[in-house]
């Protein structure tokens, strides 16, 4: 390799390193999240019989979603957007500017981009402002209460984006676990993942899970396990699930106590032979989209 080529490669590497150092990852408010914020605010507005405009913007104050409840004055549209934008770009409730003016700081009226009216509230996730909500149409206090209800929906974003994992520790006593293994039963089933206490006393059908990965840990017994290949007489039994009588041209393994095997979504698998009782934990992370391999 020539010195010129080496110098070129080093230069490209340095550029890539510099570029990487100049790029940061940040959370962004999605349309789906904005809809949840608006829904929470709308529910609060209806509880108060309020007629309001609800505006949600991103962290740069750009409008993502606007909702005007029936019979709300049209003038509230621009005011609601202004309140939301103020809360987003200044990273604080718009009420703070109204309070400054009320306290005599008239100069606050001249701050570029600020709508000094109560009812704009930042949307905060993991300690960062990712957007804001503005509400207009009723009294300033009611507008802010409705906005706070909408912004509070952000507390659930972490669970949703991580697959709706529980926000608290889940403890399952040995008695409950033993009872589940007696018949083979789910231990936990929530949006995003499942945990099963599985029991097999005989061979099963060939299976393909189009949205679930199987993480299997054998606790007792032994089995002949076939993966890959083609499912024989495969039929879709429920959406995302295919069952068949056997697997052709798959890879065969012997599973015994202590073994762990991971079967990605879309991969055929089959317990061809089982030495009963065959007990195993299965953790099933669920893909949000699916589609298989």
Task: Give an overview in words.
There is one protein chain. Helices cover 29% and strands 34% of the residues. The protein has 293 residues and is α+β, with helices and mostly antiparallel strands. The protein has two domains: 31-161, Haem-degrading domain (Beta-Lactamase), CATH 3.30.450; 174-285, YhcH/YjgK/YiaL (Jelly Rolls, Sandwich), CATH 2.60.120. A hairpin with a 2-residue loop joins strand 10 (235-238) and strand 11. The two termini are 40 Å apart. 32% of the residues are buried. Residues 159-166 and 289-293 have low confidence and may be disordered.
Compact overview of the structure:
This protein has two domains: 31-161, Haem-degrading domain (Beta-Lactamase), CATH 3.30.450.150; 174-285, YhcH/YjgK/YiaL (Jelly Rolls, Sandwich). Helix 2 (31-47) crosses helix 5. It contains seven helices and 15 strands.
Task: Give structural attributes.
single chain; about 290 residues; alpha+beta; Beta-Lactamase; Jelly Rolls; four-stranded antiparallel sheet; 7 helices; about 30% helix
